[in-house]
């Protein structure tokens, strides 16, 4: 199986590589730290040594911050792989993100479901939360304007397997182009999408590129900060990167235990 993991920045990529290389038993553990760097036009893929009897190749790409950068990098890697005759079986958007807190979810259908700093969320749905138009009566998503899509759904069986392996919650992960900076905006996002547990800036870009290539998609977010009023002192980026490495090890184990045939149609 061949998996493309797309992060925004190098620190996230390195955490994913560290986790993916450390999982399970096999050649990667016999040669820890062996990471190949593969050049693509405009990008570099990092590939920890494949391990196990049925090789699982995990390529990790730091494509930049925001949905457009994520889509460009993902599309480039997916196209290069397809043209080389070894297409990817799965694309994963992975990184740190904001977690919705009790304040934001107080008005939600399932109040109390929150994503604390240091926890991990695996996406039930990858949602473009601000793709649409402001109107006198409020925000209208592009789908209601007659365009495109605002949501991609990962295979449910894969979501369950990865969340269980990672000790993560399952929930909707919102993609925003502007980091939320107020309690009011956080509450509005959860009111519009009651299943939301986390927000970040790349998932929908990865998902759009994956959909164009007919490749299943997943998003994994390790929570570095609460979504809401800006408070840089509350960020725990180091803790979130450690959680991301742990989730990447779990991803690798889950994929070894559940090959694509078991989840690709779920
Ligand atoms: O300046 C701020 O107040 C601020 C607050 C949170 C995050 C940022 C970033 O610029 C990080 C962007 C980067 O990290 C992901 N990320 C992490 N936390 C969040 C968040 O709460 N909302 C959206 N994105 C977040 C994101 O995917 C980017 O890759 C600045």
Side by side, the strands of the main sheet go: 5-11-10-6-12
The shape, in one word, is: globular
Q: What's the number of extended β-strand segments?
A: 12
CATH superfamily: Nucleoside phosphorylase domain
Class derived from helix and strand content? alpha/beta
Strand content: 25-35%
**Share of helix, binned:** 25-40%
CATH architecture: 3-Layer(aba) Sandwich
- Which small-molecule ligands are present, each listed once? ligand LNDFFVEH
The overall number of domains is 1
Question: How many H/I helical runs?
Answer: 9
**Span of the ends, CA to CA:** 17 Å
Enzyme class: hydrolase
Family: Belongs to the PNP/UDP phosphorylase family. Futalosine hydrolase subfamily.
Function: Catalyzes the hydrolysis of futalosine (FL) to dehypoxanthine futalosine (DHFL) and hypoxanthine, a step in the biosynthesis of menaquinone (MK, vitamin K2).
Pathway: Quinol/quinone metabolism; menaquinone biosynthesis
Keywords:
two-stranded antiparallel ribbon, menaquinone biosynthesis, Rossmann fold, glycosidase, 12 strands, binds the ligand O=C(O)c1cccc(C(=O)CC[C@H]2O[C@@H](n3cnc4c(=O)[nH]cnc43)[C@H](O)[C@@H]2O)c1, methylthioadenosine nucleosidase activity, hydrolase
Helices and strands in order, then pairings?
Blueprint: E1 2-7, H1 10-22, H2 27-30, E2 35-40, E3 43-48, E4 57-62, H3 67-83, E5 90-99, H4 102-105, E6 120-128, E7 132-135, E8 138-141, E9 151-152, H5 156-166, E10 169-175, H6 183-192, E11 196-200, H7 203-212, E12 217-226, H8 237-257, H9 260-263
The structure holds the ligand O=C(O)c1cccc(C(=O)CC[C@H]2O[C@@H](n3cnc4c(=O)[nH]cnc43)[C@H](O)[C@@H]2O)c1.
Residues 8, 65, 95-98, 176, 179-180, 199-202, 224-225, 227, 230 line the site of ligand LNDFFVEH.
Pathway: Quinol/quinone metabolism; menaquinone biosynthesis
InterPro entries: FL_hydrolase_MqnB, Nucleoside_phosphorylase_d, Nucleoside_phosphorylase_sf
Protein name: Futalosine hydrolase
């Amino acid at each position: 199986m061949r998996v493309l993991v797309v992060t925004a920045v190098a620190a996230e990529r390195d955490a994913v590589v560290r986790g993916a290389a450390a999982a399970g038993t096999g050649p990667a553990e016999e040669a820890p730290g062996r990471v190949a760097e593969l050049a693509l036009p405009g990008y570099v893929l990092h590939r920890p040594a494949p391990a196990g009897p049925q090789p699982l190749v995990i390529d990790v790409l730091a494509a930049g911050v925001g949905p457009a950068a994520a889509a460009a990098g993902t599309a480039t890697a997916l196209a290069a792989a397809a043209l080389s005759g070894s297409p990817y079986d799965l694309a994963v958007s992975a990184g740190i993100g904001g977690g919705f807190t009790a304040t934001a979810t107080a008005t939600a259908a399932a109040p109390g479901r929150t994503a604390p700093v240091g926890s991990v969320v695996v996406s039930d749905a990858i949602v473009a939360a601000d793709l649409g138009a402001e109107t006198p009566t409020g925000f209208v998503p592009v789908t209601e304007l007659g365009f495109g899509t605002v949501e991609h759904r990962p295979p449910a069986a894969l979501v369950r397997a990865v969340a269980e392996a990672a000790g993560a919650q399952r929930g909707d992960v919102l993609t925003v182009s502007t980091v939320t900076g107020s309690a009011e905006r956080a509450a509005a996002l959860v009111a519009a999408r009651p299943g939301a547990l986390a927000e970040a800036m790349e998932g929908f870009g990865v998902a759009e590129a994956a959909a164009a290539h007919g490749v299943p998609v997943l998003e994994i977010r390790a929570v570095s900060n609460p979504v809401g009023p800006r408070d840089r002192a509350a960020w725990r980026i180091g803790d979130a990167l450690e959680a991301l490495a742990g989730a990447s090890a779990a991803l690798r184990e889950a994929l070894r235990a559940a090959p694509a045939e078991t989840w690709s149609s779920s």
